[in-house]
Q: What sequence folds into this?
């Protein structure tokens, strides 16, 4: 027997518990997709309503009303109102936070007046009861003319009743606000144009929140708007005020408030601490310190497991498969790329565990509150601070976490500047070059100079990020005005399942969306460094077969003649002004996969056995400039190289993640050119000043 | 009449009008309608943004936006 399949949309204000209900309904039976052309994630899931009916659940972005002011709200409005939208739901469930019912009813009453099949799911009644708010649910259902179900999304109660209500849903029995009474004439005329008698739908169309795609009627409506001197924004405001008057009247009959009990004391006391001028920042620093610890050190152990597990798997594959091109492609192209992807999972999981926790408790809004003023000046948002500082560990999870920033301009700027922060992959490069140029014992007063230089480069990344953000603030045009009026939800204990689902969702998005790009780039890089024009490799194997240390020298010579080597030599004239030669050129190309690959490639090219810093360091120190015969790695070359790695976008994973988060190639490419340009110019200046 | 940005911490007033259309729509939808009691609960460490309470809801508003909100204090 085939089951009937219906579409159900979950709608509601931000922080109403919508996503928790979504998780309760669908469990792990959910996926994240795209709305075409925009950066809002689309969350879909499936659940069984009864023996013969299944439901596809869509978790709509949080909205305050049908008047879209942000991309999120626009998605919600278009899905709920436009019959031609492929996600147009059969049933709408509006989730409301019972302790803030008034605000939720605005959105709900608009949907009721559109005459949609809708149910109200009253969430968090335990919280409102503790606040002394008593809701007469029967009376509320009667007043609204729809079915009202009491649920607790966290405790997973009321789910069965909600499913039953979805199955037996009917059209609203009454109208909440008679819009025709406020705008009598124009609504009638709009109804005629739209050939429809849904008053509220006509009103929304008059406010240019078009419900239907009929372009002929759109033109006629525009004429009508002009003729009647109808001002959409004023009318919208008027409607909202009138609607709240109606809602207040309804609530008056359904809510008994024990005034003595209504207090936000608990939240206020915690705010006294967390928003305190000194203690507040201290607490925030502590939180940041924990996040840092997690992505820098706690994730190291699982990353080592993944690394060693994966490399033994790779060598097993290498030994099991028949030797040849396919073996090489699978092991050094695909598996190497795959290994490079899954290695990021621990860091992503840890960062999002923290972020989901901070969001769910209500603390994230406070971070924004205390950081907003400082970051606003450079074009960033209060919430940019977490991505920005996480970027000092790894740009990949940091960029993904920029999603919590609701203003799209500030979010883009944050994503754009995060990779300038000195991430942990730059450490091996910095360490190698610093240890080569500066003796370990060198000190300036009580300070070790190696440490000072390292710190200077971290600081440099931070300054570059802020300066870039500041410049972009003026260059970028914003399509939407930022949403700076922000709700600060009451504190609550986080729901561990919500945290868990967030982690799973983020890891999945990273693996499947960014993973594709990473594998593709990885295969190209593999091809470049393991292939050469025909005959070259065989020639080298013959020439060097009997030379001492041939097992070290042959790979080095092979790399030199490979396509990567050819490119390295071709770009030599371009990088010569920076003090680089073709050998560094090759390293630049291979380390496009990840910065730390630089060390490995350098050791191959300079024919060093092993990859420990000590032997590479000595080998590099003795390297001669092929033209002059003097030592190649002068201070000028060292500083120039470090600056290049500080600024250049040498990380395919970051590019892939920016591609995924901005849903297109425009931003990753602009970023690639900007960062490489910045790297080139600063290396050029430094090299010429120092040499 | 006063601007919301001119209230002292702990001071209460009634919302009179909002002069910026974009901010007005946002605030109206959050339930900050004319006649509602609004209390300045606290300022952020750098005095901007500020946090106000309206019908049991804590809202953060930038000072430049609060400048556009006219309130009526009990003395008016």
A:
């Amino acid at each position: 027997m085939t089951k009937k399949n219906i579409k159900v949309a979950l709608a509601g204000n931000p922080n109403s518990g919508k996503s928790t209900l979504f998780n309760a309904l669908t469990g792990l039976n959910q996926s994240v997709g795209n709305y075409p052309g925009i950066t809002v994630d689309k969350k879909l899931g499936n659940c069984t309503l009864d023996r013969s009916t299944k439901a596809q659940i869509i978790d709509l972005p949080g909205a305050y009303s049908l008047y879209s002011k942000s991309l999120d709200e626009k998605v919600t409005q278009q899905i709920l109102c436009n019959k031609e939208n492929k996600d147009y739901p059969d049933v709408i469930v509006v989730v409301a936070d019972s302790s803030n019912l008034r605000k939720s009813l605005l959105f709900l009453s608009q949907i009721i007046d559109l005459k949609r099949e809708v149910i109200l799911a009253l969430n968090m009644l335990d919280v409102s009861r503790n606040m002394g708010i008593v809701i007469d649910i029967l009376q509320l259902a009667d007043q609204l003319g729809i079915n009202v179900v009491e649920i607790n999304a966290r405790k997973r109660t009321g789910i069965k009743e909600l499913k039953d209500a979805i199955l037996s849903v009917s059209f609203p029995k009454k109208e909440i606000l008679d819009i025709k009474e406020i705008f009598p004439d124009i609504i009638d005329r709009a109804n005629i144009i739209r050939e429809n008698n849904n008053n509220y739908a006509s009103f929304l169309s008059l406010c240019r929140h078009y419900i239907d795609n009929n372009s002929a009627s759109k033109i006629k409506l525009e004429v009508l708007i002009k003729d009647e001197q109808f001002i959409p924004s004023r009318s919208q405001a008027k409607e909202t005020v009138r609607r709240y008057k109606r809602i207040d009247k309804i609530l008056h009959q359904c809510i008994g408030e024990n005034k003595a009990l209504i207090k936000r004391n608990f939240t206020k006391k915690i705010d006294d601490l967390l928003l305190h001028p000194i203690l507040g920042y201290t607490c925030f620093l502590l939180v940041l310190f924990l996040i840092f610890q997690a992505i820098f050190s706690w994730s190291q152990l699982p990353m080592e497991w993944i690394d060693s597990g994966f490399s033994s798997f790779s060598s097993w594959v290498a030994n099991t498969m028949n030797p040849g091109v396919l073996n090489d492609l699978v092991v050094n192209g695909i598996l190497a790329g795959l290994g490079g992807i899954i290695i990021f999972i621990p860091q992503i999981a840890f960062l999002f565990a923290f972020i989901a926790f901070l969001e769910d408790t209500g603390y994230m809004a406070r971070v924004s509150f205390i950081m907003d003023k400082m970051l606003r000046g450079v074009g960033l948002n209060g919430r940019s601070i977490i991505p920005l500082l996480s970027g000092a560990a790894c740009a990949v999870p940091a960029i993904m976490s920029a999603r919590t920033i609701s203003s799209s301009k500030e979010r883009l700027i944050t994503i754009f500047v995060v990779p300038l922060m000195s991430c942990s992959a730059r450490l091996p490069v910095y360490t190698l070059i610093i240890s080569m140029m500066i003796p370990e014992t060198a000190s300036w007063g009580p300070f070790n100079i190696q440490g000072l230089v390292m710190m200077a480069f971290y600081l440099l990344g931070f300054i570059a990020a802020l300066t870039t953000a500041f410049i972009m603030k003026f260059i970028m045009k914003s399509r939407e005005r930022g949403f700076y009026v922000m709700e600060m939800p009451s504190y609550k204990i986080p729901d561990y399942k919500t945290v868990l689902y967030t982690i799973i969702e983020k890891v999945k998005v990273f693996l499947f969306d960014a993973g594709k790009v990473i594998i593709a780039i990885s295969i190209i890089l593999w091809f470049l460094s393991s292939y050469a024009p025909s005959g070259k490799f065989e020639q080298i194997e013959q020439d060097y077969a009997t030379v001492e240390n041939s097992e070290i020298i042959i790979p080095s010579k092979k790399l030199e003649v490979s396509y990567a080597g050819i490119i390295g030599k071709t770009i030599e004239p371009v990088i010569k002004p920076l003090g680089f030669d073709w050998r560094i050129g090759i390293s630049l190309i291979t380390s496009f996969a990840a910065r730390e690959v630089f060390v490995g490639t350098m050791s191959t090219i300079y024919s060093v056995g092993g990859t420990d810093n000590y032997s590479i360091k000595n080998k590099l120190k003795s390297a001669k400039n092929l033209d002059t015969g003097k030592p190649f790695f002068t201070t000028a070359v060292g500083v120039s190289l470090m600056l290049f790695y500080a600024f250049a976008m040498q990380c395919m994973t970051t590019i892939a993640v920016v591609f995924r988060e901005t849903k297109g190639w425009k931003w990753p490419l602009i970023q690639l050119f900007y960062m490489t340009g910045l790297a080139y110019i600063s290396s050029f200046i430094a090299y010429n000043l120092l040499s | 009449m006063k601007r919301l940005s001119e209230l002292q911490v702990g001071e209460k007033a009634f919302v009179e009008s909002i002069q910026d259309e974009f901010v007005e729509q946002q605030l109206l939808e959050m339930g900050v309608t004319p006649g509602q009691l609004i209390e300045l609960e606290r300022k952020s460490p750098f005095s901007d943004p500020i946090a106000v309470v309206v019908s049991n809801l804590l809202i953060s508003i930038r000072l430049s936006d609060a400048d556009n909100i006219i309130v009526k204090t009990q003395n008016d």
